[in-house]
Amino acid sequence: MENTKDLTEHSSRSERKRRDSFGMFDGYDSCSEDTSSSSSSEESEEEVAPLPSNLPIIKNNGQVYTYPDGKSGMATCEMCGMVGVRDAFYSKTKRFCSVSCSRSYSSNSKKASILARLQVTGKPPTKKAKVLQKQPLVAKLAAYAQYQATLQNQAKTKSVAVSVEGFSWGNYISSNSFIAAPVTCFKHAPMGTCWGDISENVRVEVPNTDCSLPTKVFWIAGIVKLAGYNALLRYEGFENDSGLDFWCNICGSDIHPVGWCAASGKPLVPPRTIQHKYTNWKAFLVKRLTGAKTLPPDFSQKVSESMQYPFKPCMRVEVVDKRHLCRTRVAVVESVIGGRLRLVYEESEDRTDDFWCHMHSPLIHHIGWSRSIGHRFKRSDITKKQDGHFDTPPHLFAKVLADGFLMIGIDGSEAADGSDWFCYHATSPSIFPVGFCEINMIELTPPRGYTKLPFKWFDYLRETGSIAAPVKLFNKDVPNHGFRVGMKLEAVDLMEPRLICVATVTRIIHRLLRIHFDGWEEEYDQWVDCESPDLYPVGWCQLTGYQLQPPASQSSRESQSGSSKQKKKAKSQQYKGHKKMTTLQLKEELIDGEDYNFLQGASDQESNGSANFYIKQEP
């Protein structure tokens, strides 16, 4: 496969080469294998105590270290900083791991301990470490201990912060046997177009958390289940034992393809729980990994590149006026999170009058777009650009369509000044022909004040003297989007666009998805286009640092005040209905076009959702 690395090639190599290729820190062998030192040609001045025969060992450049067994104490080489069992160290004082380190230290070439470097940077030790300080050993050990304690405290703090949230996608999916929409369903999301065939059984190298060594070590794990960006992993060697399975974001910085440890000089150490399960871990890995798949070697680079966004703070754009949908206003990009933009209207003095949307949203345009198509535009009272603000380059937006834009209003709820009309393009997938809802059994909201129920299109058109827009004028393209009923995802609440919530696909009608917010009543469901930039894979918020809203609990729903509900319903009406579809009427064509023959007064329908307010064609 193009995006996976086939490990079969290792099977044709010699046994020795295959062993070295899995990043075993120059070998993870049993004590029956050769463990003699080869890093120095000098003979030992003192015999090294024999190692316990029941412990697997790690060899690096001939220097031997083992796991702590509860009896043997740990020691740190004052020269190179390596950590190992005290009894395996050189000399009576156990200050050095080898003769070479002892003589180098005594020759005054590198008198400062590598622990000083650990204290400052926290990076793994190297033999070329610079002399940073000339502290006594006791002071350095104290500093290192303090540094490790700080790291542990930070880890505990982070753990507490996560538990306070009370929601974990992994636990939520595992405990309920949910499935999540695959990343490939979201072309606008990071890795959406280059996810490849990452699937179950793909192997990766991850930090080994079941280990008592003071340094960070890794081990190989396989993907048991995928849920968006999140993967349930199981360490190699646990077979059918799920006791230490764990969830992580596959795009995280600690997830690497097999072979990364070997290339980076990182140790591969089996989990403590199973360290005595096999006598030859190298042979085990060779057998398990031959023919297996792993991440592409440039996976982390692709993740990084896919999370680079062209929009920057202080860029000026034209965006829909959230209070008067019929016009646009100038806004300034305040922040960019995962491609989502917080836009502050230019005239907002306290910078609280904002609007959230994705950079691919059809609601934003380059400066000058409204004038170019004849769209209504609210002129700013600010006559001069503020310092540091600059117009967003037009090439960052989708192709500007020169014609075919329509102003459409909701029947029965028209404002006297036309402020509730909205601009769509004729190719928008969010407007539908008369009869669409009836055919697909979608509830249609009749015009406000219309009392002849149940609503019938034929009667309504005859009574109002309207004509139906021909079906041939509508966008009938239905992509192979990959969504299925019951899939979990993260979705924007269009009534509060700054919120992204845990959600479920409950219905699919062609390219329309009905999105239900977990824990909330169905009245808050919304219809969304399958290519909406307001839908994201599970784990997107964690990956980008955006705040995810967990499923609403019964208590939180009941505590919502009546006024708050009324406010939500009012806002829902502003966004043209949430769960239902509404009857619409074409008000005017902004620019005539030969290919688009909508007539003023023709009625159509629209769905609610992320693509409701299409002003231009989706990219």
From TrEMBL:
CDD domains: MBT_MBTD1_rpt1, MBT_MBTD1_rpt2, MBT_MBTD1_rpt4. Residues 1-21 have a biased composition (Basic and acidic residues). It comes from Delphinapterus leucas. Residues 1-55, 551-581 are annotated as: Disordered. Residues 553-564 have a biased composition (Low complexity). The gene is MBTD1. This is MBT domain-containing protein 1 isoform X8. One of its GO terms (molecular function) is histone binding. It comes from the Eukaryota.
